[in-house]
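Suppose you are handed a protein chain with no further information: no name, no annotation, nothing but its sequence. What can you learn? This example shows the usual starting point.
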Amino acid sequence: MTQEKTDAAKSEERQQALQSLLSRSASDLAFRNDLLREPRRMLEEALDCALPEDFTVQVVENRGADLSVVLPDVAAAEEALSDEDLEAVAGGMFCLASCAASCAVTSTDSVGVPGIGGAVCL
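A reasonable first move is to predict its three-dimensional structure. Written in structure tokens, the prediction is:
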């Protein structure tokens, strides 16, 4: 198996683990509360990997919104991405830390976006 296929398989496994975590949080109140209280630990367990020490995790509840949008960190207009930042998002790797367009879509009927109902965009 090539490295690219291995990376793709890992990414798919992590996507499934994340989806499972989100699904369980919708039906298991104790699990949901643990996820809100200790998001880093819960995510590491779900993904079966340690996150970098400087990687922060924040979980927020969707309180009936049809679309939740997470704004990227504020950056100076002239600030360019570092080589490290570019490397983190290049090559189609599973990206959880560096993606600026993170969102959770719970319903797309009212916004007219076909094909992603209930999807999590990473």
